[in-house]
Please model this.
Amino acid sequence: MRTALRASIATAVLAGALLAPIAGTAYAATTTAPAAAAVAATVPDRYAGTPVLIGTGVVAVLRNKSEGPEAWIRAVSDDWKPGDGYTGRVLATLDVEHLKASVNGLELELVGKDSAHPSLSVAKGGTTKSYPLPQAATAPTAPADCVSKVKQVNLGAGLQADLTMSPKGPKVVMHGADPADTWTRTLTRTNPKGSSDYLSRINNPSSAKPVFEWKTQGGNDVPSGFADFPALPKGCTLDYQVTEETPAPKPEPSTAKPVTATDVSAQTAGQTTVVPQGAVAAGAEIASEDTDNTTTLAAGAGAGLLAVFAVLGATVLRRRRSHN
Model:
């Protein structure tokens, strides 16, 4: 009995020794095979994408991540099929700066680089196929409320102004400092001027840095007040084209002095006055005595002409007599 029991134990021990290597090998195969598959499927994120077979031994790895739309053209085995590795030799890379390439008789083009749905166009032998790129990750959306924080400015004379900035541009709401005061006035980019009773306006309303200017009390000698507008919230943009406006130059005051009667007398002092003789002089004397200058000058001029003609006639008559 004991002999038979010992024989059974020995047989079991021997069987265990013989089966141990086989079991170990089988366990090792089951544990290492998944690890090997995992290593083969691991691709660095910078090169990961959607591989598509575009020609014999050529795949395009399509990407659309933070770098923008890309198509990495790589060499693979001739019997490549989906699910196989695709990190072979790089034949060409198409991106936003390199939109076209020629590889192994294939004419490649990255289409719609700025659109929401870019694609890779592959042409060969008159046939063109299009392969859409993966959908880009959703870009962060602008805040629902793109109105800046309120900047409150004390204008004096019991008035305040609330300055805000939005995609539509600068905005000013002037109101009484007393809550019981219901008076308000609003200035905007398209309506930048305020009341005619006092100065209030938005300078350069369409510029990148508009400025609110006001003057609610005092005369022309009182300086204006100025206040910058708050910045737009992060992620917000203006809905209009930014333009810088240059105010028109103010005309400089003239330095010339008005000429008065006294100045005329002073300017003519020291000049020699030639007084005509004869009938012309008589006309001049009449002009100095007559109160109607127009009539006097006409009379003087007529008399002067008659005297001239008389002198000429006498000269001609004397010459004729001398020749005779």
